[in-house]
Amino acid sequence: MTDDPTTALRATRLGRRFRGGWALRDCDFALPAGRITALVGPNGAGKSTLFHLATGLLRPTAGELRVFGAEPGSPAARDRTAFLAQDKPLYPRFTVEETLRFGRELNGDWDQAAAERIVRAGDIPLDARVGALSQGQATRVALALAFGKRPGLLLLDEPLADLDPLVRIEAMGLVMAEVADRGITVVMSSHVLSELENACDHVLLLKQGAVRLDGDAQQLCETHVRITGLADPSTDDGLPPALDRAGVVEASVTGRQVHALLRHTGPLPGDDRWVVENPSLEDLLLAYLRSDSTPAPAPEAAA
Amino acid sequence: MKGTLWLAWRQQRALILTGAAVLLAVTAWVVIMRTDMTDFISSRHIDTAGCKGWDGGCESEATIQLLDDTTGPIRALGTLSAALPVLIGVFWGAPLIGRELESGTWKLALTQGVGAGRWFVTRFALAALCTVLGSAVLAALVAWWWSPVSNMLNGLYWHDGYIFNATGPAAVACALFGLAAGTAAGLLIRRTLPAMAVVLGAVVALRFALNTFRSDWISPQLWISKGDASRREIGSGWSTGEFGYLDAAGHRIRIPDACPVDDNLARCMAGQGYVGRYRTVFPSSDFWTFQWIETGIFLGLAAVLIAGVCVVLKRRPLP
């Protein structure tokens, strides 16, 4: 397989089965290099499994995954990948300085200056024990360890979970600032969709182990519309009769109002009874996250 | 220190320094105690070299006092040395990988520039080196302290558990086995505490089995005394507890008290058709045979366990 420099992470028919069944199945995607990809999905969608496959902590059951063309877990891939696992593991008995030394000793190409800068910017003393740090400080140290590695690909599994709102903003700001001038590819999973909207320019949405949405964030918003209007009495679902039902991601009726989010395929309702607008990324993701569990319209609301 | 060796040192230094301090204190204690003992031996002119076994002539008040004073402390040191493999397995082997898996830090360690192989080999090699050094020092201390009063009267004999399990190459090999068993248990169980319990059980069970079957590995010597001559004294040997009479055809009759040992012994034996008496004994030189057999067993099992650990570490996910 050719090494395409514009692709950071490429999955080909990727699958991973556990005892309980397939965590990921038949996934095909190519995440662009130099971008910040939001990895979105409900719990159990396979997000952590994907991160573990990308770091070589797991091997695929089917298909393959490539990090800049290299097999995850191979020396070439390990050198270029930094991973912040969901539980943000650090050695609690190490000092901050020793934690950075851990990165220096175990990596050939280490940016001590950057790592120390990130730690100092959080007012964390280098001789503090990691076990005594607050959640936010520990996240900062873990990020310093990740950035010190000079990664080409940074994988962040729920980096903002367990953080209070102020620390979340600080942590996101740190990631954005470090990523901006270094061209690092980031893949970040989060449940906080509003925060992803500001940070991410690419989206990969997993659901039940399959890719449901993959693309440039802005393009996705432009190729989808939200329509709102009075339910059309001539159709069961209240949507205009001419509308291509295959493009409907989600539709719901509240009283006589119909809300729907659709892919921009066929003609849109032209009359002024319908309000047509592009969705925000958060609305778009929510619609895709909901679309299986809540098929249009709910019975009691349809009257 | 560089690379993975620095990490191994940083994570094991508390164990290494604690172990070294304890070893140093024990060594000092043994030096003092042994000096007292040799002073006592020379001041009371006890012929320790000529007093091996139960073969009479040595039961002086001084000798009995010597053994009374030294057997307990040497037994305590032997207990420590014999327990060392369990301690190493529980406190060094089980957390070696188990704690990394338990706390999730294995994800940190295995996603850096160095591979899992080097990461494991370095940390295990450091632990194994310390295990060999520590157990060898303790084993040597036991041998050094015990040798002047070895195999004497009611003292400690080479085949006593306090000595046999506490010294020689088998003690070092057993410590390595403990470390390997703990490492494997930590990797397979992924929890430090249950792994500690398992390795405790495994090392104690293997030791118990070896102590039980030790005398089955090789045949004891057959010691025959002709006619009504008294049986050869056991000396430093290890009696199997089997003794009896021989008939003219050379058959052994395992009836210890077929004839009472008194003035009529010869007549009684002649009446039964016995031509001599026998016993079976492991001479003290068999110490080394037993030691090397058990060394081989411990090292073989340790090698199998570590090979298994290496295979499992290559697999993903880790168990």
Automatic annotation (TrEMBL), chain A:
Q: Which PROSITE patterns match?
A: ABC_TRANSPORTER_1, ABC_TRANSPORTER_2
Protein origin, superkingdom:
Bacteria
Q: Where is the ABC transporter domain?
A: 9-233
- InterPro entries reported for this sequence: AAA+_ATPase, ABC_transporter-like_ATP-bd, ABC_transporter-like_CS, ABC_Transporter_VariousFunc, P-loop_NTPase
Gene Ontology MF, one: ATP binding
Extract the Pfam families matched here: ABC_tran
Q: Read off the SMART domains from this record.
A: AAA (SM00382)
**What are the UniProt keywords, alphabetically?**
ATP-binding, Nucleotide-binding, Transport
Q: What is this protein called?
A: ABC transporter ATP-binding protein
Q: Which organism is it from?
A: Streptomyces hiroshimensis
Automatic annotation (TrEMBL), chain B:
The keyword Transmembrane helix belongs to this UniProt entry's keyword annotation? yes
Protein name as catalogued: Transporter
Instruction: Mark the transmembrane ranges.
Output: 12-32, 76-98, 119-146, 166-188, 195-213, 292-313
- Which keywords does UniProt give here? Membrane, Transmembrane, Transmembrane helix
Q: Does the keyword NADP apply?
A: no
Domain of life per record = Bacteria
